[in-house]
Amino acid sequence: MNGASGANGANTMTAMKTAAQVRPIRLGPRSTVVLVLVSLVGVAAFGWPLLADPQSDLAHSADAPWLFAALLPLLLAVVIAQISEGGMDAKAVAMLGVLAAVGAALRPLGAGTAGIEPMFFLMVLSGRVLGPGFGFVLGSVSMFASALLTGGVGPWMPFQMLSMGWVSMGAGLLPDRRRGRRETALLAVYGVVSSVLYGTVMNLQGWPYIGGMSSSVSFVPGAPVPDNVTRFAAYCLTTSLGWDLPRAAVTAALTLTLGHPLLRTLRRATRRAAFDASATFAGERS
């Protein structure tokens, strides 16, 4: 009896461990390639002013940010469609809708107040549990929904969607071995780094088009890249760091205090959803 009980317990623990690793969206080779290509286009959309020929019409065009703002949503739609093609059932859509709605509702609680954005910790923890594919879709959709909710629609919105997709996807790519306090500490550190990087990347999106600034922090078309990078660093330190650091601090604090129960809840929901289970009907017989 004891041997049978031990075997059953071991089987149960193995099943629970396997279930905890089930992801609602799995990245296949094709969807991974599409995601990488769109990310490269996104990097180019953020950084092209640093490399553009100063004599070109594009370098001086006020329409350039709008061109990328129109291009990125189409590319993001392609990525989401491609990822969904790999297997996104009704349960995954339902979980995506719930988490995106919660994330969109969290953002207005602190947006505009010293850069505090509570949604970041939810995106990090969700990406950690549900994987990089789901994380990218969740980050993008949550930012889109929050922009509609807060009226923050503009040429910057696609860049925000892409950046938040990267944040949540990155959490899903972290090593899987840590659990407990070590895991929440790892996610808190990641939350700090990703929060600051998010603000820095978004600065790069708007900085080349801001006029009337001191020459020591303003973008100079055609200047050597190291010179513009130095000006950009000075711009970040003098303007946005006061928003980026509070965002990072709030993300870390929420992760350390609420991270463990939320991770447990998300993993329990993932197990119960049984994303990898095939549908069966009452009349079927094996």
Automatic annotation (TrEMBL):
<feature type="transmembrane region" description="Helical">
    <location>
        <begin position="33"/>
        <end position="52"/>
    </location>
</feature>
<dbReference type="Pfam" id="PF12822">
    <property type="entry name" value="ECF_trnsprt"/>
</dbReference>
<feature type="transmembrane region" description="Helical">
    <location>
        <begin position="129"/>
        <end position="150"/>
    </location>
</feature>
<feature type="transmembrane region" description="Helical">
    <location>
        <begin position="90"/>
        <end position="109"/>
    </location>
</feature>
<keyword id="KW-0472">Membrane</keyword>
<dbReference type="InterPro" id="IPR017196">
    <property type="entry name" value="ECF_substrate-spec_UCP037395"/>
</dbReference>
<dbReference type="GO" id="GO:0022857">
    <property type="term" value="F:transmembrane transporter activity"/>
</dbReference>
<feature type="transmembrane region" description="Helical">
    <location>
        <begin position="64"/>
        <end position="84"/>
    </location>
</feature>
<keyword id="KW-1133">Transmembrane helix</keyword>
<dbReference type="InterPro" id="IPR024529">
    <property type="entry name" value="ECF_trnsprt_substrate-spec"/>
</dbReference>
<feature type="transmembrane region" description="Helical">
    <location>
        <begin position="186"/>
        <end position="210"/>
    </location>
</feature>
<protein>
    <submittedName>
        <fullName>ABC transporter permease</fullName>
    </submittedName>
</protein>
<keyword id="KW-0812">Transmembrane</keyword>
